[in-house]
Amino acid sequence: MKAVQYRAIGAAPEVVTVPDPEPGPGQVLLKVTAAGVCHSDIAVMSWPEENFPYELPLTLGHEGVGTVEAVGEGVTGLETGTSVAVYGPWGCGTCVKCAQGKENYCLRAAELDINPPGLGRPGAIAEYLLVDDPRHLVPIGDLDPVRTVPLTDAGLTPYHAIKRSLPRLGAGSTAVVIGTGGLGHVGIQLLRAMTSARVVALDVSEEKLALAREVGAHETVLSDEKAAGRVREITGGLGAQAVFDFVGADSTLATAAACAAVESDLALIGIAGGTMPIGFGQPAYEVSVNSSYWGSRSELFEVIELARTGVLDVHTETFSLDEAPRAYELLHEGKINGRAVILPNG
Ligand code: NAD
Ligand code: ZN
Ligand code: ZN
């Protein structure tokens, strides 16, 4: 089959032919109908050799939707042809976090060398994807694979972050979204669907800010050193009750900290590697800062249920498998509006 692989440190991803995977006992083979392209892959492909955590070559893609092609020995209850979304942060399935569905925080994944598809294990940007266990699949029925596949990460990750801040986001509150790309433009819609907060979106690109307004942001602000002042103005000087930083650079964290109201949440989701100073009264009193990784298995069911109600309008740009390296280039250049989605089977 054809697959898109990161093959050597610093090299661009390549379309290659690899052996067709076959499902072993307990595994499920999917024919991939759609695979999302996440900015995290660009971060992975910039890591130096010394601390590169995965074996190369690596088939990319940690957002996947497909149809069940074949099941391994012992797998029951999954019919061939069923359309499913893949829960990506695989865990051991037996520890207490996994028992709670929080496989993203599996206690034994490192010890047992369990990795997500596309982030250690062969990923979804290929004609076929091997899934280690049927519990990592969520049936999506007749939902469109292209518009659904980003929900497995670009939807699930903001959903989890927003859900933990719901108590802050009652009527009269303000939520700030920094970075309105793949994750951010879904985050804005989730905030509109799940809360009554006023949503203020920040980005460096006018095109992304236009998308932010289109998907429901009440206000948009260019992300520069004046942005926090604008958010303070919009909120009558008080600041925002929750700030979601989908960039995570020093500069955006500085903005996030300056936007955060007394008794607010500051969620760090982007992995640009920035840090922020913490001191007495800085950020404001009783601000809770947290970083989070992906979401739980049951939260993916919830996001898919929300999509079924028709309130999410995920923007996508589609590419063939052969065009996937170009999709990564465009994402790197900031030229994808919404999420790039690869169609490995035409
Ligand atoms: P993306 O490229 O689609 O979107 C990033 C957006 O940020 C773009 O619209 C870009 O214009 C904007 N941006 C860049 N610099 C900015 C600045 N200084 N101020 C405001 N906006 C700025 O990327 P994505 O796929 O949505 O991923 C966003 C981030 O989240 C990445 O760092 C990614 O690695 C990370 N991520 C984290 C998790 C997690 O579990 N924590 C999961 C998925 C992705
Ligand atoms: Zn991702
Ligand atoms: Zn576990």
TrEMBL record:
UniProt xrefs under Gene3D superfamilies: Medium-chain alcohol dehydrogenases, catalytic domain (3.90.180.10), NAD(P)-binding Rossmann-like Domain (3.40.50.720)
Catalysed reactions, as listed in the record: a secondary alcohol + NAD(+) = a ketone + NADH + H(+); a primary alcohol + NAD(+) = an aldehyde + NADH + H(+)
Primary enzyme class: oxidoreductase
Cited InterPro entries: ADH-like_C, ADH-like_N, ADH_Zn_CS, ER, GroES-like_sf, NAD(P)-bd_dom_sf
Pfam family membership, one: ADH_N
Keyword annotations from UniProtKB, A to Z: Metal-binding, Oxidoreductase, Zinc
Obligatory cofactor(s): Zn(2+)
This protein's record includes keyword Calcium: no
EC number, UniProt record: 1.1.1.1
GO molecular function: alcohol dehydrogenase (NAD+) activity; zinc ion binding
Superkingdom to which the source organism belongs: Bacteria
Matching SUPFAM superfamilies: GroES-like, NAD(P)-binding Rossmann-fold domains
Name of the protein described by the UniProt record: alcohol dehydrogenase
Lineage, highest ranks first: Bacteria, Bacillati, Actinomycetota, Actinomycetes, Kitasatosporales
Residue stretches making up the Enoyl reductase (ER) domain: 10-342
Database matches in PROSITE patterns: ADH_ZINC (PS00059)
Entry's family note: Belongs to the zinc-containing alcohol dehydrogenase family.
